[in-house]
Amino acid sequence: MLLYKNSNSVGQRKSNSKICRTGYSNQRYAFKNDLMAVYITLD
After folding, report:
1. Using CA atoms, how far apart are residues 15 and 41, in angstroms rounded to an integer?
2. Contact, 15 vs 31, CB < 8 A?
3. Residues 6+ apart with CB under 8 A from 15
4. What are the CA-CA distances from residue 36 to residues 12, 20, 21, 27, 33 (Å)?
5. Tens place of pLDDT for every residue, the chain, 43 residues?
6. List of residues 6+ apart from 35 with CB closer than 8 A
7. What pLDDT, on the 0 to 100 scale, is given for residue 6?
C-alpha cells in the first residue's frame, strides 16, 4: 500500500508538470507508467 501511495504522489507531480504543456491525456500515461513501476518493484 505504501509503495502504491508513493508511486501515486510521484505520478501526480510528473503529470502536473506535463499538463501545462501537453494536456490531460498525458497525465493518464504518466499515471499508468507509475503503476507499472510498482508492479515491477513488487515483482
Report:
1. 21
2. yes
3. 26, 27, 30, 31
4. 15, 24, 23, 14, 5
5. 444 444 445 545 554 554 445 444 555 555 565 566 655 555 4
6. 7
7. 47
Collapse the DSSP code of 28 into the 3-class scheme (helix H, G, I; strand E, B; otherwise coil) and give the result. Answer: helix
**Confidence (pTM):** 0.19
Place of cell 501545462: 20
Instruction: Please return the burial class of 11, using the count of CB atoms within 10 Å of its CB with bins 0-12, 13-18 and 19+.
Output: buried
Per-residue confidence (pLDDT) for residue 34, from 0 to 100:
59
Q: Tell me the three cell numbers of residue 27.
A: 497525465
